[in-house]
Every structure is written in C-alpha cells, then in structure tokens.
Specification:
The protein is α/β, with parallel strands linked by helices. The chain has five helices and seven strands, in the order E-E-E-H-H-E-E-H-E-H-E-H. Helix content is 40%, strand content 22%. The protein binds adenosine-5'-diphosphate. Adenosine-5'-diphosphate binds next to helix 1.
C-alpha cells in the first residue's frame, strides 16, 4: 500500500476486492446501459443485491461515456455506488484520455455534492475496455490530486485487483507526488 497526503486528504493505492471496502462510496466501472456487466461491474451488482441495484439503475436510465451516476450501496458496506462510464480504448486518438479524466471528475463532483468524504475507484477502463494501464494510471492519479485540492475528501483510494496493477498505480502516484 502506498499513501500520500495532500492537505487533509490521503490518497492511497491498495490491492483489494472493491466490494469489501467500508467506505462512503465505491465507484463502479459501469457501461452506458447501467445494466450490469462483467468484471468489477458484475461483482458490485452481485454484492449489492442484483435486483435492488438493477431497479435503481433502471430508474436512472443510462449514463453517457465520461459521466457518472449515483445509487445507494444496498447490501454493500459502502453507503453509495457511483457508476462511472469510462471509454472503450480504440487507438488513443478518439478522445479516450479526456473521457477517462472526465469519468473521474464527474465521480468526484457527484461525491462532493453528496457529502461523500471517502471514496474508492477501481482501475476504470483497464479491464474489458482495454485502456493501457500506465496511461490510465497517470490520468487517475492526476484527477485524484486535483480532487484532493478541493478539501472535500478525507480519503481517496485507487483500488487495484492485482498487485501488478497496484505497482503501476503506485508508480504513477509516487511520480506525480514528486512534481
Ligand atoms: P472496464 O470495462 O472499465 O475495463 P473491468 O471491470 O473490465 O472494467 O475492469 C476494470 C478494472 O477492475 C480491471 O483492472 C479489473 O482487474 C478490476 N476489477 C475486476 N474486479 C474487481 C474487483 N472485484 N475489485 C476491484 N477491481 C476489480
């Protein structure tokens, strides 16, 4: 685990299953339909309670790429789920970087509006959506540092599923923290 501090905010990279975290909100790497899918999305839907979460997502309707929507956490330890839709990687020239940054920014904005002070993100877009991990890690870290500047968060976690991914996100965090 790597932690840096910015003002009152701790930014951490951890290796964990995001559904286990006891925190104000976990972020889901959702798709535009918000209907649930594979990867972390499927895990979150199962752990929150499939029927209840699907019903809440159906009421919202959907979410464009680069934005986020919030629901209750239902059976999760986390009070809320923020469903962020990251971009599918194409070749890097289709606005992928901006859309990924936007998915983080929207998530932080929603969290701030709901008084959420602790939040954990998975490595959005780096699984099924194929975003290169180094590049995604740099974007995630710079958005976390920007969010820390707002003073609205006590704890921001980048929750990786493997120690190899955590090493990538830790590298990005350590580099950025030094600049
Ligand atoms: P995307 O479609 O945005 O790429 P994925 O769910 O396929 O979303 O993958 C995003 C990241 O989430 C990947 O790094 C994957 O290893 C990770 N992941 C999958 N399951 C979990 C989980 N239970 N907790 C945390 N991270 C997870």
């Amino acid at each position: 685990m790597t932690t840096i501090r910015r003002g009152e905010t701790a930014i951490e990279v951890i290796t964990a299953d995001i559904i286990t975290l006891e925190i104000d909100a976990i972020v889901n790497a959702a798709n535009q339909s918000l209907k649930g899918g594979g990867g972390v999305d499927g895990a979150i839907h199962r752990a929150a309670g499939k029927a209840k979460l699907q019903e809440a997502c159906r009421a919202i309707g959907g979410c464009p790429t680069g934005e986020a929507r919030i629901t209750d956490g239902f059976d999760l330890a986390a009070r809320h789920i923020i469903h962020a839709v990251g971009p599918r990687w194409k070749d890097g020239t289709k606005g992928e970087d901006d859309l990924l940054a936007s998915a983080y920014r929207h998530s932080f904005a929603l969290a701030g509006d709901h008084g959420i002070r602790s939040i954990a993100f998975p490595a959005i877009s780096t699984g099924i959506y194929g975003f290169p991990k180094d590049r995604a890690a740099n974007i995630a870290v710079s958005e976390c540092l920007a969010a820390a500047e707002t003073g609205k968060f006590d704890r921001i976690m980048l929750c990786c599923f493997s120690s190899a991914d955590a090493a990538t996100y830790e590298g990005a965090l350590t580099r950025e923290a030094q600049t």
